[in-house]
Amino acid sequence: MTSAASLDAAAARLRIEAQRIEQVVAGYLTPVLEQLPGVWRGPAADRLEQQLLGHRTVLRSVTRELHRRSIELDSRAAQLRAMGAPPGAEGVGADAI
Description:
This protein has helices at 4-39, 43-82. By secondary structure, it is mainly alpha-helical.
């Protein structure tokens, strides 16, 4: 049984995790990528740069998915509230994420 409040809490957790990932990308990956060409050159540096760019792309995709899922949970919680579902009433669960 899933309540609107539990869906809200799950959505909030997803947004927090997305924000943490975004902070890692902005605080570590992006600065490394910006500084790499001035620090290290050659084939190994090129491979590292390509790998880091790939990781950054994947992490950004994950954050988009987390945000998308949090919006879905918010919507499901709003639907439960609109139906006047009592706390703890059965609904579409957060385990669907």
